[in-house]
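Re: the multi-chain job from yesterday

Posting the exact lines I submitted so nobody has to dig through the queue logs.
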Amino acid sequence: MGELQGLGAALSEAERIGVEIIAISPDPNERSQKLAQGLRLAYRFVSDRDLAVTRRYGLLHAGAGPNGEDVPRPATVVLDRDGVVRWFSVTRNYQVRPDPDDVLRAVRAL
Amino acid sequence: MTSGRLAGLGVLVAIGAITAYASLLRVALVRNHPEGYVIAFALATALAALAVVRPRARRWPAWLALGFTSLLLVGGAWFNFVIARVPDGPTALRVGERPPDFTLPDAAGRPVSLADYRGQKPVVLVFYRGYW
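And the result, structure tokens for all chains:
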């Protein structure tokens, strides 16, 4: 969830300029809701319980969770108004996330 | 510098690195260079090693510092370069193309479809590992 906190400040500007931010994780809905309220973010938190969407995107990291469960490879994707990918970043080290300024630059360039 | 001071400095560098990394996690420059704490642990270990080989030194504080700092170095390097590594691999994402559509429930249980935003507004998708 650190990545969401990190993105929060910069992306609040993205929200202001009318970009929808959809945060996808295998977390159950109740937990996502708590997280959303805790961080006071206007993200749409959606739950990919069985990781079917994560797998379809090629973002599954098998067996890497704390209890050996599958988890997503952290990734950020910027889509334009037509739903076309304009920029994306998939991390190689889960401590490392895209610089919020880079995401914002991609959003502003739309 | 005396052995005691070198040992103290080594421990201080190691603890300082942990404190700085933990408290500056929100700063992208810090968060995105986790190898920084590994380098700091290596520096701390080198200082403690110097303290051990100093002539006429009281040995046990230096050895204690060396044990502490080298443990952090091995643990930190193991975490950063092995545990936290995410494998590379092909994704369904191509710049200039539409990614796969999906419909998933939001926090209130309402379905959210990516297709619904098409022609409406830009979208940022953030895949993350979860609350933990």
